[in-house]
Amino acid sequence: MNKKMSLGTAMIIRTIPIIFFPIFYYTMVRTHYTTFDSFIPVIVGTICGGLFSLYHKMKKDINDELAKRNKLKSDSICFTVAIITLIFIMITIGFSNISTITIGYIISFDIVFLAILNVIIFNIIDKKGV
Asked: pLDDT tens digit string along 3-14?
């Protein structure tokens, strides 16, 4: 099994564990417990660890310079979007009475949104060859 994978596939595999972040946050801030709740962080951690190790293993095999340059462009665009969304969240939180748990959920879903946006922007840039 010596197949080469594209950087787009590697970015999708990198994004999947980030989608589990709000679930992991939920397990850390909940106030009620059941017997199954103690296994959720272990299951999420195992899935995320396996996918991150697969991502780092695949990242070594990628030699496409154009794709790496496109990834840098999509990262810079997403960094600008992250700054704008976090400033908007900060201003909104400053003028409202939101609990800290809700703020954590907003930030964790913002991280998921930015990770998915990064993959979408990379695929658009990569398809157009900009």
From this structure: 666 777 778 888
| 7-12 contacts at long range (C-beta below 8 A, 24 or more positions apart) | 7/62, 7/64, 7/67, 7/68, 7/70, 7/71, 7/122, 7/126, 8/67, 8/119, 8/122, 8/123, 8/126, 9/58, 10/55, 10/58, 10/59, 10/62, 11/71, 11/118, 11/119, 11/122, 12/119
pLDDT confidence tier of residue 56, bands split at 50, 70 and 90 = confident
**Residue 122 and residue 76: Cα distance in Å, rounded?**
11
CB atoms within 10 A of CB 99: 8
Q: How many residues does the chain have?
A: 130
Number of helical (H) and strand (E) elements in the chain, helices listed first? 5, 0
